[in-house]
Amino acid sequence: MSDRSESAAPSGQEPELRDLFGALPDPQVQMPRPAEQPAVPGSRRAAREAAKVTSTPDAARTETPAAPSAEVHQGTDATLEALFRHEAEPPAVPKHKRRRGCLIALLIVFVLVGGAAAGGLWVWNTYGDKISETMGWGPSKDYEAGQATGTALVTINKGDGGQQVSEALYDAGVTKTSDVFYTMMVKENIVNTFYPGVYKLQQKMTAAAALKALNDPKNKMQNSAVIPEGYTVAQTVERIAKSVDVPLADLQAAVQNPADYGVTAPSLEGWLFPALYEFAPGATAKDIVATMVKRTRDSLAAASVPAGDEQRVLTIASIIQREARAEADFYKVSRVIQNRLDQGMKLQMDSTAQYGYGELHSGSASTSDAAQNDDNPWNTYVIDGLPKTPIANPGDKAIDAAMHPATGSWLYFVTVNLDTGETVFSATYEEHEAAVKQWQDWCKANPDSGC
After folding, report:
1. Angle 285-302/396-403 helices, nearest 10 degrees?
2. Residue 382 falls within a domain, yes or no?
3. Is the pLDDT of residue 66 over 60?
4. Between 16 and 270, where is the model more confident?
5. How many Cα atoms occupy the beta-carbon half-sphere of 10 within 13 Å?
6. Which pLDDT does position 331 carry in this prediction?
7. How many domains does the chain have?
8. 182 with 281, same domain?
9. Is 138 helix (H, G, I), strand (E, B) or coil?
10. Quick one: 16 exposed, middle or buried, by C-beta within 10 A (0-12, 13-18, 19+)?
11. 277 in the same domain as 361
């Protein structure tokens, strides 16, 4: 039994186990060996030396006599040594295999890069506008200072807030985009009261300059209103009441009797000329209506309309105003109307059917089946000749076109692009059908454009 006490064995063990632990040799501290001493059998050093001496298994056993246990350790260490040598010095790869591997790696890189590029292109094409807007890239939504020029008339109606004013400024050509003015107000937390009326501003103003101009009393035209072309009587009096201090009820009553203004017609439809008006202080509703009727007579005279023919010309002009998308086409539309009347054809104008049915301003260029087939004195799909009255208030250009139609044999026309106003005029029904197909195709491709 060694000097190790029995307490060294775990408590509770059997005597046989205590004898086993007691029989273990005492731990020895291994002292450093001088460099000239031979390598310990079974060590890595011994394995390396043995590998230098012989290259065959038999020679290795001859040159390195050792106990069986040492042979096991030596073989294990030699195997590990060989493994380390293999990792550090991989075998040479033939050149043609290296070239093929490089080519495959290059192809993989190209595929990855190409895929990333294609994916990036798709993301940019799909979300580029939103990314640019979020990151502040791309052209500015506001004009640069110092670009302001010319004159622009902006109408602010009663109850208009920042968003409505922002759109009105854009429509008048004052600001660069429809939302830049409102965005500025929100971003800078601007609270502003907008007073109804017509304001004289400039085109291409910055949003900040436009706000300053709207708050300058010198830019507000007193007792003024701007009436757009193509408005009906009902729309006109509503527009005036929003910007002029005259009650809507008074204006509606003032337009009831055309004879009060020397007009021989069932209504004043077509007789309230579209223009900018600045009425005298204290003007009554009848004063306002009389001013507008007089302005219509001035336009009729300028177009050399014979006395007694005013109502017919205004009726044709009102259809031209509603049907033609561009002023350049006014005179061609006038010719189509005249050619159809001369040949005894029904006019079949959508604007007349929409007016008679009450859907003239429904926001769609197409006429509903109900409107097209409704039997009323304005629907030129049903009646012969001109409608009972004008269907809107025409401007100078439309009145002149009614008097001076272009030369041509057209009997049909259709606007094939509602965004650009491109219109195709045709002399035969076959040509017209082809143009209608073109319009239908455009509408399919642009479902949100008002078809």
Report:
1. 40
2. yes
3. no
4. 270
5. 4
6. 97
7. 2
8. no
9. coil
10. exposed
11. yes
